[in-house]
Design brief:
heterodimer, A: mainly alpha, B: two-stranded antiparallel ribbon, two-stranded antiparallel sheet, 64% helix, globular
Protein backbone atom coordinates (compact mmCIF):
# COMPACT_ATOMS: atom_id res chain seq x y z
CA UNK A 1 0.00 0.00 0.00
CA UNK A 2 1.23 3.45 -0.85
CA UNK A 3 2.42 5.77 1.87
CA UNK A 4 -0.39 8.00 3.18
CA UNK A 5 0.19 11.71 3.18
CA UNK A 6 -1.45 14.69 4.77
CA UNK A 7 -1.30 16.84 1.66
CA UNK A 8 -3.60 17.36 -1.26
CA UNK A 9 -0.92 17.03 -3.91
CA UNK A 10 2.25 15.53 -2.72
CA UNK A 11 4.38 15.07 -5.84
CA UNK A 12 4.80 18.44 -7.54
CA UNK A 13 5.55 20.92 -4.81
CA UNK A 14 4.89 23.94 -7.01
CA UNK A 15 1.19 23.28 -7.10
CA UNK A 16 -0.88 24.43 -4.19
CA UNK A 17 -3.91 22.55 -2.90
CA UNK A 18 -6.09 25.34 -4.31
CA UNK A 19 -4.68 24.69 -7.77
CA UNK A 20 -5.60 21.01 -7.50
CA UNK A 21 -9.16 21.91 -6.54
CA UNK A 22 -9.41 24.48 -9.34
CA UNK A 23 -8.01 22.13 -11.95
CA UNK A 24 -10.25 19.27 -10.93
CA UNK A 25 -13.30 21.57 -10.94
CA UNK A 26 -12.53 22.77 -14.45
CA UNK A 27 -11.66 19.20 -15.44
CA UNK A 28 -15.04 17.92 -14.31
CA UNK A 29 -16.75 20.74 -16.21
CA UNK A 30 -14.81 19.62 -19.27
CA UNK A 31 -15.92 16.02 -18.74
CA UNK A 32 -19.55 17.14 -18.59
CA UNK A 33 -18.88 19.24 -21.71
CA UNK A 34 -17.58 16.07 -23.34
CA UNK A 35 -20.79 14.33 -22.32
CA UNK A 36 -22.89 17.02 -24.01
CA UNK A 37 -20.63 16.93 -27.06
CA UNK A 38 -21.04 13.17 -27.42
CA UNK A 39 -24.81 13.54 -27.14
CA UNK A 40 -24.81 16.37 -29.69
CA UNK A 41 -22.85 14.27 -32.18
CA UNK A 42 -24.95 11.19 -31.54
CA UNK A 43 -28.24 13.02 -31.96
CA UNK A 44 -27.23 15.22 -34.91
CA UNK B 1 -54.60 -2.62 -5.50
CA UNK B 2 -54.48 -4.79 -8.59
CA UNK B 3 -52.48 -7.80 -9.75
CA UNK B 4 -51.29 -5.69 -12.67
CA UNK B 5 -49.96 -3.05 -10.29
CA UNK B 6 -48.08 -5.62 -8.20
CA UNK B 7 -46.63 -7.28 -11.30
CA UNK B 8 -45.21 -3.92 -12.36
CA UNK B 9 -43.71 -3.42 -8.89
CA UNK B 10 -42.18 -6.90 -8.89
CA UNK B 11 -40.76 -6.41 -12.40
CA UNK B 12 -39.05 -3.27 -11.16
CA UNK B 13 -37.60 -5.13 -8.14
CA UNK B 14 -36.40 -8.01 -10.32
CA UNK B 15 -34.57 -5.69 -12.71
CA UNK B 16 -32.82 -3.87 -9.86
CA UNK B 17 -31.75 -7.13 -8.18
CA UNK B 18 -30.51 -8.47 -11.54
CA UNK B 19 -28.30 -5.39 -11.96
CA UNK B 20 -26.70 -5.62 -8.52
CA UNK B 21 -24.03 -8.22 -9.27
CA UNK B 22 -22.83 -7.11 -12.72
CA UNK B 23 -22.80 -3.42 -11.83
CA UNK B 24 -21.22 -4.19 -8.45
CA UNK B 25 -18.51 -6.28 -10.12
CA UNK B 26 -17.79 -3.49 -12.58
CA UNK B 27 -17.66 -0.74 -9.95
CA UNK B 28 -15.48 -2.82 -7.64
CA UNK B 29 -12.96 -3.16 -10.47
CA UNK B 30 -13.14 0.58 -11.18
CA UNK B 31 -12.47 1.60 -7.59
CA UNK B 32 -9.76 -1.00 -7.14
CA UNK B 33 -8.01 0.61 -10.11
CA UNK B 34 -8.30 -2.52 -12.24
CA UNK B 35 -8.65 -2.70 -16.01
CA UNK B 36 -12.18 -2.53 -17.42
CA UNK B 37 -13.56 -2.75 -20.94
CA UNK B 38 -13.81 1.05 -20.99
CA UNK B 39 -10.21 1.62 -19.88
CA UNK B 40 -8.81 1.92 -23.44
CA UNK B 41 -11.09 4.92 -24.02
CA UNK B 42 -11.28 6.52 -20.59
CA UNK B 43 -7.86 5.82 -19.11
CA UNK B 44 -6.12 8.51 -21.22
CA UNK B 45 -8.67 11.11 -20.09
CA UNK B 46 -8.22 10.04 -16.49
CA UNK B 47 -4.44 10.24 -16.76
CA UNK B 48 -4.61 13.73 -18.29
CA UNK B 49 -6.80 14.93 -15.43
CA UNK B 50 -4.32 13.64 -12.84
CA UNK B 51 -1.37 15.18 -14.68
CA UNK B 52 -3.02 18.56 -15.16
CA UNK B 53 -4.02 18.75 -11.52
CA UNK B 54 -0.69 17.40 -10.37
CA UNK B 55 -2.16 14.66 -8.24
CA UNK B 56 -1.47 10.96 -8.37
CA UNK B 57 -3.92 8.12 -8.02
CA UNK B 58 -1.24 6.14 -6.19
CA UNK B 59 -0.87 8.66 -3.38
CA UNK B 60 -3.27 7.56 -0.67
CA UNK B 61 -4.84 10.07 1.72
CA UNK B 62 -5.51 10.03 5.43
CA UNK B 63 -9.27 10.25 6.14
CA UNK B 64 -8.92 13.88 7.17
CA UNK B 65 -7.06 14.85 4.01
CA UNK B 66 -9.62 12.96 1.96
CA UNK B 67 -12.44 14.84 3.68
CA UNK B 68 -10.75 18.23 3.34
CA UNK B 69 -10.17 17.64 -0.38
CA UNK B 70 -13.86 16.78 -0.76
CA UNK B 71 -14.93 19.87 1.20
CA UNK B 72 -12.68 22.19 -0.82
CA UNK B 73 -13.93 20.70 -4.10
CA UNK B 74 -17.54 21.13 -3.03
CA UNK B 75 -16.96 24.69 -1.83
CA UNK B 76 -15.54 25.71 -5.19
CA UNK B 77 -18.42 24.01 -6.98
CA UNK B 78 -20.85 25.92 -4.79
CA UNK B 79 -19.18 29.26 -5.56
CA UNK B 80 -19.03 28.53 -9.29
CA UNK B 81 -22.71 27.64 -9.46
CA UNK B 82 -23.68 30.70 -7.43
CA UNK B 83 -21.67 32.96 -9.75
CA UNK B 84 -23.14 31.37 -12.90
CA UNK B 85 -26.66 32.09 -11.71
CA UNK B 86 -25.88 35.65 -10.69
CA UNK B 87 -24.21 36.45 -14.02
CA UNK B 88 -26.37 34.37 -16.37
CA UNK B 89 -27.86 37.50 -17.98
CA UNK B 90 -24.50 38.47 -19.47
CA UNK B 91 -23.32 34.94 -20.25
CA UNK B 92 -23.90 32.99 -23.50
CA UNK B 93 -26.45 30.20 -24.17
CA UNK B 94 -29.30 32.30 -22.86
CA UNK B 95 -31.65 32.53 -25.86
CA UNK B 96 -34.65 33.38 -23.71
CA UNK B 97 -32.83 36.29 -22.06
CA UNK B 98 -33.18 35.05 -18.47
CA UNK B 99 -32.18 37.67 -15.88
CA UNK B 100 -29.86 37.21 -12.91
CA UNK B 101 -31.15 34.85 -10.24
CA UNK B 102 -31.88 36.58 -6.91
CA UNK B 103 -29.11 36.17 -4.27
CA UNK B 104 -31.13 34.10 -1.79
CA UNK B 105 -32.51 31.84 -4.50
CA UNK B 106 -29.04 31.47 -6.03
CA UNK B 107 -27.69 30.47 -2.59
CA UNK B 108 -30.47 27.95 -2.11
CA UNK B 109 -29.97 26.48 -5.57
CA UNK B 110 -26.19 26.31 -5.29
CA UNK B 111 -26.42 24.60 -1.88
CA UNK B 112 -29.12 22.35 -3.26
CA UNK B 113 -27.22 21.04 -6.29
CA UNK B 114 -23.85 20.89 -4.55
CA UNK B 115 -25.32 18.68 -1.81
CA UNK B 116 -27.06 16.37 -4.32
CA UNK B 117 -30.41 17.61 -2.99
CA UNK B 118 -31.79 19.45 -6.02
CA UNK B 119 -34.52 21.16 -4.08
CA UNK B 120 -35.87 23.68 -6.59
CA UNK B 121 -37.49 26.90 -5.44
CA UNK B 122 -37.69 27.96 -9.08
CA UNK B 123 -39.16 26.79 -12.35
CA UNK B 124 -36.26 25.54 -14.48
CA UNK B 125 -37.74 26.57 -17.80
CA UNK B 126 -38.55 30.08 -16.55
CA UNK B 127 -35.47 30.87 -14.45
CA UNK B 128 -32.28 29.20 -15.66
CA UNK B 129 -30.41 29.73 -18.94
CA UNK B 130 -29.12 26.75 -20.92
CA UNK B 131 -25.58 27.58 -19.77
CA UNK B 132 -26.58 27.42 -16.11
CA UNK B 133 -28.49 24.20 -16.73
CA UNK B 134 -25.55 22.52 -18.50
CA UNK B 135 -22.37 24.07 -17.03
CA UNK B 136 -23.77 24.62 -13.57
CA UNK B 137 -26.60 22.33 -12.62
CA UNK B 138 -25.64 19.30 -14.72
CA UNK B 139 -22.00 19.54 -13.65
CA UNK B 140 -23.07 19.52 -10.01
CA UNK B 141 -25.40 16.62 -10.78
CA UNK B 142 -22.36 14.65 -11.90
CA UNK B 143 -19.86 15.70 -9.26
CA UNK B 144 -22.21 15.63 -6.27
CA UNK B 145 -23.13 12.07 -7.20
CA UNK B 146 -19.48 11.20 -7.80
CA UNK B 147 -18.61 12.71 -4.41
CA UNK B 148 -21.19 10.48 -2.71
CA UNK B 149 -19.87 7.37 -4.44
CA UNK B 150 -16.27 8.30 -3.56
CA UNK B 151 -17.14 8.76 0.11
CA UNK B 152 -18.96 5.43 0.22
CA UNK B 153 -15.94 3.71 -1.30
CA UNK B 154 -13.66 5.40 1.22
CA UNK B 155 -15.87 4.15 4.06
CA UNK B 156 -15.87 0.65 2.56
CA UNK B 157 -12.07 0.76 2.54
CA UNK B 158 -12.23 1.72 6.21
CA UNK B 159 -14.06 -1.53 6.93
CA UNK B 160 -12.03 -3.67 4.54
CA UNK B 161 -8.53 -2.58 5.53
CA UNK B 162 -6.63 -3.44 8.67
CA UNK B 163 -3.93 -1.41 10.42
CA UNK B 164 -4.05 1.14 7.60
CA UNK B 165 -3.60 4.90 7.80
CA UNK B 166 -5.29 5.80 4.54
CA UNK B 167 -8.70 5.36 2.93
CA UNK B 168 -7.89 6.05 -0.74
CA UNK B 169 -7.46 9.15 -2.88
CA UNK B 170 -10.47 11.46 -3.21
CA UNK B 171 -9.44 12.82 -6.60
CA UNK B 172 -9.00 9.35 -8.06
CA UNK B 173 -12.25 8.04 -6.59
CA UNK B 174 -14.25 11.07 -7.71
CA UNK B 175 -12.71 11.05 -11.20
CA UNK B 176 -13.34 7.34 -11.64
CA UNK B 177 -16.91 7.60 -10.41
CA UNK B 178 -17.55 10.34 -12.96
CA UNK B 179 -15.66 8.87 -15.91
CA UNK B 180 -16.23 5.13 -15.59
CA UNK B 181 -19.62 4.93 -13.88
CA UNK B 182 -21.73 8.04 -14.48
CA UNK B 183 -20.54 9.17 -17.91
CA UNK B 184 -21.04 5.95 -19.91
CA UNK B 185 -24.35 5.13 -18.26
CA UNK B 186 -25.61 8.68 -18.87
CA UNK B 187 -24.64 8.59 -22.54
CA UNK B 188 -26.54 5.33 -22.94
CA UNK B 189 -29.59 6.56 -21.03
CA UNK B 190 -29.69 9.92 -22.81
CA UNK B 191 -29.81 8.22 -26.20
CA UNK B 192 -32.62 5.95 -25.01
CA UNK B 193 -34.58 8.94 -23.74
CA UNK B 194 -34.08 10.83 -27.01
CA UNK B 195 -35.28 7.78 -28.91
CA UNK B 196 -38.41 7.77 -26.74
CA UNK B 197 -39.18 11.40 -27.54
CA UNK B 198 -37.49 13.41 -24.79
CA UNK B 199 -36.21 16.74 -26.25
CA UNK B 200 -32.47 17.39 -26.58
CA UNK B 201 -31.80 20.73 -28.24
CA UNK B 202 -30.10 24.07 -27.67
CA UNK B 203 -32.69 25.91 -29.78
CA UNK B 204 -34.93 28.55 -28.25
CA UNK B 205 -38.41 27.72 -26.98
CA UNK B 206 -41.02 27.12 -29.70
CA UNK B 207 -43.84 29.58 -30.31
CA UNK B 208 -46.91 27.73 -31.53
CA UNK B 209 -50.44 28.71 -32.49
CA UNK B 210 -53.09 26.49 -30.95
CA UNK B 211 -56.23 25.26 -32.74
CA UNK B 212 -58.15 28.04 -30.98
CA UNK B 213 -55.74 30.57 -32.44
CA UNK B 214 -54.00 31.39 -29.16
CA UNK B 215 -50.22 31.77 -28.96
CA UNK B 216 -48.38 29.23 -26.82
CA UNK B 217 -44.71 28.98 -25.91
CA UNK B 218 -43.49 25.40 -25.68
CA UNK B 219 -40.39 25.01 -23.53
CA UNK B 220 -37.71 22.65 -24.85
CA UNK B 221 -33.96 22.37 -24.27
CA UNK B 222 -31.25 19.85 -23.34
CA UNK B 223 -33.75 17.81 -21.34
CA UNK B 224 -32.64 14.23 -22.05
CA UNK B 225 -29.04 14.79 -20.95
CA UNK B 226 -30.13 16.35 -17.67
CA UNK B 227 -32.76 13.67 -17.17
CA UNK B 228 -30.17 10.89 -17.42
CA UNK B 229 -27.90 12.21 -14.67
CA UNK B 230 -30.84 13.50 -12.66
CA UNK B 231 -32.01 9.93 -12.09
CA UNK B 232 -28.74 8.00 -12.19
CA UNK B 233 -27.06 10.41 -9.78
CA UNK B 234 -30.17 10.50 -7.56
CA UNK B 235 -30.18 14.25 -7.99
CA UNK B 236 -33.82 14.74 -8.91
CA UNK B 237 -33.75 18.31 -10.18
CA UNK B 238 -36.02 18.46 -13.19
CA UNK B 239 -35.48 20.47 -16.33
CA UNK B 240 -39.14 21.39 -16.11
CA UNK B 241 -40.94 22.60 -13.03
CA UNK B 242 -43.30 19.61 -13.19
CA UNK B 243 -40.27 17.30 -13.12
CA UNK B 244 -40.99 13.73 -14.23
CA UNK B 245 -44.72 14.40 -14.35
CA UNK B 246 -44.04 16.57 -17.43
CA UNK B 247 -44.73 14.67 -20.65
CA UNK B 248 -41.43 15.86 -22.20
CA UNK B 249 -39.47 14.64 -19.17
CA UNK B 250 -41.28 11.32 -18.76
CA UNK B 251 -43.26 10.55 -21.89
CA UNK B 252 -44.35 6.95 -21.36
CA UNK B 253 -44.41 3.90 -19.09
CA UNK B 254 -41.14 2.51 -20.45
CA UNK B 255 -39.23 5.73 -19.77
CA UNK B 256 -40.88 5.81 -16.33
CA UNK B 257 -39.58 2.29 -15.61
CA UNK B 258 -36.08 3.14 -16.85
CA UNK B 259 -36.05 6.25 -14.67
CA UNK B 260 -37.07 4.29 -11.58
CA UNK B 261 -34.46 1.58 -12.22
CA UNK B 262 -31.74 4.15 -12.82
CA UNK B 263 -32.50 5.80 -9.45
CA UNK B 264 -31.79 2.53 -7.62
CA UNK B 265 -29.16 0.95 -9.88
CA UNK B 266 -25.92 2.41 -8.51
CA UNK B 267 -27.05 2.57 -4.88
CA UNK B 268 -28.11 -1.08 -4.89
CA UNK B 269 -24.95 -2.15 -6.68
CA UNK B 270 -22.80 -0.37 -4.10
CA UNK B 271 -23.92 -2.95 -1.53
CA UNK B 272 -22.31 -5.55 -3.79
CA UNK B 273 -19.19 -3.40 -4.09
CA UNK B 274 -19.14 -3.39 -0.29
CA UNK B 275 -19.42 -7.17 -0.17
CA UNK B 276 -16.69 -7.64 -2.73
CA UNK B 277 -14.27 -5.20 -1.12
CA UNK B 278 -14.69 -6.69 2.37
CA UNK B 279 -14.23 -10.13 0.88
CA UNK B 280 -17.67 -11.55 1.62
CA UNK B 281 -20.51 -10.76 -0.78
CA UNK B 282 -23.04 -12.06 1.76
CA UNK B 283 -22.37 -8.94 3.83
CA UNK B 284 -23.56 -6.82 0.92
CA UNK B 285 -26.62 -8.96 0.35
CA UNK B 286 -27.54 -8.71 4.05
CA UNK B 287 -27.46 -4.91 3.87
CA UNK B 288 -29.47 -4.96 0.64
CA UNK B 289 -31.90 -7.35 2.32
CA UNK B 290 -32.50 -4.92 5.18
CA UNK B 291 -33.04 -2.14 2.64
CA UNK B 292 -35.43 -4.40 0.70
CA UNK B 293 -37.59 -5.17 3.75
CA UNK B 294 -38.13 -1.49 4.54
CA UNK B 295 -38.70 -0.70 0.86
CA UNK B 296 -41.34 -3.36 0.23
CA UNK B 297 -43.28 -2.41 3.36
CA UNK B 298 -43.21 1.23 2.25
CA UNK B 299 -44.39 0.39 -1.26
CA UNK B 300 -47.21 -1.78 0.07
CA UNK B 301 -48.52 0.93 2.41
CA UNK B 302 -48.23 3.74 -0.15
CA UNK B 303 -49.82 1.69 -2.94
CA UNK B 304 -52.60 0.51 -0.63
CA UNK B 305 -53.34 4.07 0.50
CA UNK B 306 -53.42 5.48 -3.03
CA UNK B 307 -55.35 2.59 -4.54
CA UNK B 308 -57.93 2.68 -1.74
CA UNK B 309 -58.61 6.36 -2.40
CA UNK B 310 -60.47 8.91 -0.34
CA UNK B 311 -63.58 7.66 1.54
CA UNK B 312 -65.06 11.17 1.49
CA UNK B 313 -64.86 11.17 -2.30
CA UNK B 314 -66.30 7.65 -2.43
CA UNK B 315 -69.28 8.90 -0.38
CA UNK B 316 -70.04 11.30 -3.23
CA UNK B 317 -70.42 8.33 -5.57
CA UNK B 318 -66.96 8.58 -7.18
CA UNK B 319 -65.20 5.23 -6.90
CA UNK B 320 -61.57 4.33 -7.53
CA UNK B 321 -58.15 5.21 -6.23
CA UNK B 322 -56.76 8.63 -5.50
CA UNK B 323 -55.85 10.14 -8.88
CA UNK B 324 -55.51 13.75 -7.72
CA UNK B 325 -52.08 15.06 -8.72
CA UNK B 326 -51.25 11.94 -10.70
CA UNK B 327 -50.65 11.35 -14.38
CA UNK B 328 -53.20 8.99 -15.96
CA UNK B 329 -50.41 7.30 -17.96
CA UNK B 330 -48.80 6.14 -14.70
CA UNK B 331 -51.80 5.47 -12.46
CA UNK B 332 -51.75 4.83 -8.72
CA UNK B 333 -49.32 1.88 -8.74
CA UNK B 334 -46.49 3.57 -10.64
CA UNK B 335 -47.07 6.90 -8.92
CA UNK B 336 -46.89 5.28 -5.47
CA UNK B 337 -43.86 3.19 -6.47
CA UNK B 338 -42.08 6.23 -7.90
CA UNK B 339 -42.76 8.22 -4.72
CA UNK B 340 -41.31 5.49 -2.51
CA UNK B 341 -38.27 4.99 -4.74
CA UNK B 342 -37.47 8.67 -5.05
CA UNK B 343 -37.59 9.17 -1.28
CA UNK B 344 -35.93 5.87 -0.37
CA UNK B 345 -33.08 6.98 -2.56
CA UNK B 346 -32.20 10.63 -2.17
CA UNK B 347 -33.42 11.41 -5.66
CA UNK B 348 -36.34 13.78 -5.26
CA UNK B 349 -37.66 13.55 -8.79
CA UNK B 350 -41.43 13.19 -8.81
CA UNK B 351 -43.93 11.88 -11.34
CA UNK B 352 -46.91 12.82 -9.13
CA UNK B 353 -47.57 15.57 -6.62
CA UNK B 354 -46.87 14.20 -3.15
CA UNK B 355 -49.07 16.84 -1.54
CA UNK B 356 -52.05 15.25 -3.27
CA UNK B 357 -51.30 11.78 -1.92
CA UNK B 358 -53.56 10.34 0.73
CA UNK B 359 -52.27 11.17 4.24
CA UNK B 360 -50.81 7.68 4.73
CA UNK B 361 -49.50 7.67 1.15
CA UNK B 362 -47.63 10.89 1.92
CA UNK B 363 -46.48 9.47 5.25
CA UNK B 364 -44.22 6.90 3.58
CA UNK B 365 -42.06 9.39 1.64
CA UNK B 366 -41.69 11.38 4.87
CA UNK B 367 -40.58 8.31 6.83
CA UNK B 368 -38.16 7.28 4.09
CA UNK B 369 -36.43 10.65 4.22
CA UNK B 370 -36.52 10.92 8.02
CA UNK B 371 -34.71 7.60 8.31
CA UNK B 372 -31.90 9.21 6.33
CA UNK B 373 -32.71 7.58 3.00
CA UNK B 374 -30.82 4.44 3.84
CA UNK B 375 -32.96 2.24 1.57
CA UNK B 376 -30.49 2.15 -1.32
CA UNK B 377 -30.31 5.88 -0.76
CA UNK B 378 -28.48 8.54 -2.69
CA UNK B 379 -25.59 7.18 -4.70
CA UNK B 380 -23.05 6.48 -2.00
CA UNK B 381 -24.94 8.42 0.65
CA UNK B 382 -27.37 5.55 1.15
CA UNK B 383 -24.62 3.06 1.84
CA UNK B 384 -22.68 5.22 4.25
CA UNK B 385 -25.94 6.15 5.99
CA UNK B 386 -26.80 2.48 6.32
CA UNK B 387 -23.33 1.63 7.60
CA UNK B 388 -23.82 4.20 10.37
CA UNK B 389 -26.91 2.27 11.42
CA UNK B 390 -24.90 -0.96 11.19
CA UNK B 391 -22.42 0.48 13.70
CA UNK B 392 -25.31 1.38 15.98
CA UNK B 393 -26.91 -2.05 15.52
CA UNK B 394 -23.71 -3.87 16.41
CA UNK B 395 -23.40 -1.64 19.47
CA UNK B 396 -26.93 -2.60 20.55
CA UNK B 397 -26.20 -6.28 19.85
CA UNK B 398 -23.03 -6.00 21.93
CA UNK B 399 -24.98 -4.51 24.82
CA UNK B 400 -27.48 -7.35 24.64
CA UNK B 401 -24.86 -10.07 25.10
CA UNK B 402 -22.36 -8.08 27.17
CA UNK B 403 -19.59 -8.34 24.61
CA UNK B 404 -17.52 -5.72 22.78
CA UNK B 405 -19.27 -5.33 19.44
CA UNK B 406 -17.44 -6.34 16.28
CA UNK B 407 -18.22 -5.85 12.64
CA UNK B 408 -16.25 -7.60 9.92
CA UNK B 409 -13.60 -8.51 12.42
CA UNK B 410 -13.14 -4.96 13.72
CA UNK B 411 -14.01 -3.96 17.26
CA UNK B 412 -16.53 -1.14 17.43
CA UNK B 413 -15.55 1.13 20.26
CA UNK B 414 -16.66 4.38 21.85
CA UNK B 415 -15.31 6.64 19.10
CA UNK B 416 -17.21 4.90 16.30
CA UNK B 417 -20.45 4.81 18.28
CA UNK B 418 -20.14 8.51 19.16
CA UNK B 419 -19.50 9.44 15.54
CA UNK B 420 -22.44 7.31 14.33
CA UNK B 421 -24.78 8.87 16.88
CA UNK B 422 -23.55 12.36 15.98
CA UNK B 423 -24.27 11.76 12.30
CA UNK B 424 -27.65 10.18 12.98
CA UNK B 425 -28.73 12.99 15.35
CA UNK B 426 -27.83 15.85 13.01
CA UNK B 427 -30.71 14.96 10.68
CA UNK B 428 -33.53 15.35 13.23
CA UNK B 429 -31.82 18.47 14.51
CA UNK B 430 -32.08 20.11 11.09
CA UNK B 431 -35.43 18.58 10.15
CA UNK B 432 -37.35 19.16 13.35
CA UNK B 433 -35.48 22.25 14.52
CA UNK B 434 -36.18 24.30 11.41
CA UNK B 435 -39.77 23.00 11.23
CA UNK B 436 -40.35 24.11 14.82
CA UNK B 437 -39.05 27.58 13.97
CA UNK B 438 -41.17 27.81 10.82
CA UNK B 439 -44.29 26.80 12.73
CA UNK B 440 -43.97 29.63 15.24
CA UNK B 441 -42.81 32.38 12.87
CA UNK B 442 -45.28 34.33 10.72
CA UNK B 443 -42.82 34.27 7.82
CA UNK B 444 -42.82 30.47 7.94
CA UNK B 445 -46.59 30.16 8.19
CA UNK B 446 -47.17 32.65 5.36
CA UNK B 447 -45.96 30.17 2.75
CA UNK B 448 -48.19 27.19 3.49
CA UNK B 449 -50.91 26.38 0.98
CA UNK B 450 -53.32 24.59 3.30
CA UNK B 451 -54.36 25.03 6.94
CA UNK B 452 -54.35 22.37 9.67
CA UNK B 453 -52.19 19.26 9.73
CA UNK B 454 -51.64 19.33 5.99
CA UNK B 455 -50.03 22.75 6.28
CA UNK B 456 -47.79 21.38 9.05
CA UNK B 457 -46.87 18.47 6.77
CA UNK B 458 -45.90 20.94 4.04
CA UNK B 459 -43.38 22.65 6.31
CA UNK B 460 -42.13 19.39 7.83
CA UNK B 461 -41.72 17.86 4.37
CA UNK B 462 -39.71 20.85 3.13
CA UNK B 463 -37.12 20.62 5.90
CA UNK B 464 -37.08 16.81 5.93
CA UNK B 465 -36.53 16.81 2.17
CA UNK B 466 -33.82 19.45 2.44
CA UNK B 467 -31.89 17.94 5.35
CA UNK B 468 -32.12 14.44 3.88
CA UNK B 469 -30.76 15.85 0.60
CA UNK B 470 -33.78 14.49 -1.21
CA UNK B 471 -35.17 17.58 -2.90
CA UNK B 472 -38.69 16.44 -3.65
CA UNK B 473 -41.34 18.98 -2.72
CA UNK B 474 -44.70 18.33 -1.12
CA UNK B 475 -46.15 20.72 -3.65
CA UNK B 476 -48.22 23.32 -1.84
CA UNK B 477 -45.54 25.28 -0.01
CA UNK B 478 -44.36 28.55 -1.58
CA UNK B 479 -40.69 28.02 -0.91
CA UNK B 480 -39.16 30.89 -2.86
CA UNK B 481 -39.02 33.33 0.04
CA UNK B 482 -36.02 34.72 1.89
CA UNK B 483 -36.83 32.59 4.96
CA UNK B 484 -37.23 29.28 3.19
CA UNK B 485 -34.37 29.89 0.73
CA UNK B 486 -31.94 30.50 3.58
CA UNK B 487 -33.18 27.95 6.11
CA UNK B 488 -33.72 25.08 3.67
CA UNK B 489 -30.29 25.91 2.23
CA UNK B 490 -28.81 25.64 5.72
CA UNK B 491 -30.69 22.37 6.34
CA UNK B 492 -29.26 20.90 3.13
CA UNK B 493 -25.69 21.80 4.10
CA UNK B 494 -26.16 20.38 7.62
CA UNK B 495 -27.75 17.19 6.31
CA UNK B 496 -24.91 16.59 3.88
CA UNK B 497 -21.74 17.54 5.69
CA UNK B 498 -22.68 16.86 9.32
CA UNK B 499 -23.17 13.24 8.25
CA UNK B 500 -20.18 12.97 5.94
CA UNK B 501 -17.53 14.16 8.38
CA UNK B 502 -18.42 11.71 11.20
CA UNK B 503 -18.78 8.93 8.63
CA UNK B 504 -15.29 9.65 7.34
CA UNK B 505 -13.97 9.75 10.90
CA UNK B 506 -15.38 6.24 11.32
CA UNK B 507 -13.69 5.22 8.06
CA UNK B 508 -10.32 6.40 9.32
CA UNK B 509 -10.80 4.84 12.72
CA UNK B 510 -11.93 1.47 11.35
CA UNK B 511 -9.13 1.36 8.78
CA UNK B 512 -6.57 1.76 11.55
CA UNK B 513 -7.90 -1.16 13.61
CA UNK B 514 -6.49 -4.66 13.64
CA UNK B 515 -8.68 -7.54 12.55
CA UNK B 516 -9.96 -9.82 15.28
CA UNK B 517 -10.34 -13.51 14.36
CA UNK B 518 -13.86 -14.90 14.17
CA UNK B 519 -14.82 -16.87 17.27
CA UNK B 520 -17.85 -18.76 18.56
CA UNK B 521 -19.10 -15.57 20.17
CA UNK B 522 -18.95 -13.48 17.00
CA UNK B 523 -22.34 -12.23 15.88
CA UNK B 524 -22.80 -13.28 12.22
CA UNK B 525 -23.68 -10.28 10.08
CA UNK B 526 -24.78 -12.02 6.92
CA UNK B 527 -27.95 -13.74 8.12
CA UNK B 528 -31.58 -13.08 8.83
CA UNK B 529 -31.06 -12.30 12.51
CA UNK B 530 -28.71 -9.45 11.67
CA UNK B 531 -31.09 -8.15 8.98
CA UNK B 532 -33.98 -8.24 11.46
CA UNK B 533 -31.99 -6.49 14.17
CA UNK B 534 -30.76 -3.84 11.73
CA UNK B 535 -34.29 -3.13 10.49
CA UNK B 536 -35.52 -3.02 14.09
CA UNK B 537 -32.86 -0.50 15.17
CA UNK B 538 -33.58 1.70 12.14
CA UNK B 539 -37.31 1.72 12.77
CA UNK B 540 -37.02 2.20 16.54
CA UNK B 541 -34.54 5.07 16.21
CA UNK B 542 -36.67 6.64 13.47
CA UNK B 543 -39.90 5.95 15.27
CA UNK B 544 -38.78 7.43 18.57
CA UNK B 545 -37.34 10.48 16.88
CA UNK B 546 -40.03 11.38 14.38
CA UNK B 547 -43.30 9.84 15.54
CA UNK B 548 -44.48 12.97 17.43
CA UNK B 549 -43.99 15.14 14.33
CA UNK B 550 -45.67 12.58 12.08
CA UNK B 551 -48.56 12.38 14.52
CA UNK B 552 -49.12 16.13 14.18
CA UNK B 553 -49.10 15.91 10.38
CA UNK B 554 -50.17 12.97 8.21
CA UNK B 555 -51.44 10.72 11.02
CA UNK B 556 -53.87 13.25 12.49
CA UNK B 557 -54.89 14.21 8.95
CA UNK B 558 -55.72 10.55 8.23
CA UNK B 559 -57.73 10.18 11.42
CA UNK B 560 -59.56 13.44 10.72
CA UNK B 561 -60.38 12.27 7.22
CA UNK B 562 -61.94 9.08 8.60
CA UNK B 563 -64.01 11.26 10.92
CA UNK B 564 -65.17 13.33 7.93
CA UNK B 565 -62.99 16.39 8.61
CA UNK B 566 -60.97 17.89 5.76
CA UNK B 567 -58.63 20.86 5.69
CA UNK B 568 -58.72 23.14 2.69
CA UNK B 569 -58.12 26.78 1.94
CA UNK B 570 -61.14 28.71 3.15
CA UNK B 571 -62.89 25.55 4.33
Amino acid sequence: MAKPVLRFRPRAKAWSPIAVVLTMTVGMMAVVGLFHFIIRIATA
Amino acid sequence: MTINGWIQILVFCAIVVALVKPLGWYMARVFNGEHTFLSPILRPIETVLYKLSGTSEREEQHWLTYTLAMLAFNLLGFLALYALQRFQAVLPYNPMGMGAVAPDLAFNTAASFMTNTNWQNYGGESTMSYLVQMAGLTVQNFVSAATGIALAVALIRGFSRASAKSVGNFWADMTRATLYVLLPLCVMLTLVYVARGVPQTLSAYIDATTLEGARQTIAVGPVASQLAIKMLGTNGGGFFNANSAHHFENPDALVNLIQMVSIFAIGAALTNVFGRMVGDQRQGWAILGAMGVIFIVGVAVAYWAEAAGNPLVHALGVDGGNMEGKEVRFGTAMSALFAVITTAASCGAVNAMHSSFMPLGGLIPLINMELGEIVVGGVGAGLYGMLLFVVLTMFVAGLMVGRTPEYLGKKIEAKEVKMAILAILCLPLAMLGFTALAVVLPTGLASIGNPGPHGFSEMLYAYVSGAANNGSAFGSLSGNTLWYNLTIGAAMLMGRFFVIVPAMAIAGSMAAKKTVPVSAGTFPTHGGLFVGLLVGVILIVGGLTFFPALALGPIVEHLSMIAGQTFSVGG
